[in-house]
């Protein structure tokens, strides 16, 4: 009865008024049969039975009031009839089934809306985080690229002025190279100005760090209380592309920060492996692992840190993997392919 009434209600037909009247008619018939059809008891029984059934007609607008009225009147009808009031009990069951069903559907709708809103918020937050991280990476790489372009401009100008007997065409070419380099620097400064406005405060003017500054980073980490941090270097140490070294340094820095936040007191090994074809970096701790870390931090900050590391690795042409360690703890691995020198 409840499901039929709800479907009719959705379709726009006046199902509940008709249902209430039908129940009331059945209740009157039951009262006549059970009281013998005469006397004061009949009038009282009809009144009570009608009160126990007719409020179903208003269940759409006044669900709680109708349920309370039917409940009280049904109890009175059972006392009056000295037994079960069949029609009243049917109305009682119907009205409460309808109310419970409505409550369940309302809660499901609210839960679905909450989940959708949360997913949209998380998606928007991740998008903004990725944009901000890319802007910070671009600001840091600006100094590296600007240095190379400045060297191009200076060397072109020096060659034009220092080489005696240079043909006019060669001097014009070198002059054009210098002008192009200076124009590129100007455009990069404009881009950097946009990134500063879009991504936050003025960046640090110190030289960008590289792999040679990892010892200082390890020492700073130890000074914060993480005494179990080790730096392990394998292979032939060589100077690499400044942008690649910057990305590797920032990945190690973020991985150490995550280890200190999610596995305080755990031992951490930072491994740098120089191979002929790639630079391999791994940061591994012996803490509780990703499950405990995500439970303790809610998964938000750790997820944003990993997103930033992946963005940095991709910007330098590398690949990054993060997850549980072989035995325990958390492992961050990054691989940066190295271009072969001609």
TrEMBL record:
One of its GO terms (molecular function) is ATP binding. Keywords: ATP-binding, Kinase, Membrane, Nucleotide-binding, Phosphoprotein, Transferase, Transmembrane, Transmembrane helix, Two-component regulatory system. It catalyses: ATP + protein L-histidine = ADP + protein N-phospho-L-histidine. The keyword Transmembrane applies. The keyword Transmembrane applies. Its EC number is 2.7.13.3. Residues 243-340 form the Histidine kinase/HSP90-like ATPase domain. InterPro entries: HATPase_C_sf, HATPase_dom, Sensor_HK_TwoCompSys, Sig_transdc_His_kin_sub3_dim/P. The chain crosses the membrane at residues 15-33, 40-58, 70-99. SMART domains: HATPase_c. One of its GO terms (cellular component) is membrane. Residues 284-304 are annotated as: Disordered. This is histidine kinase.
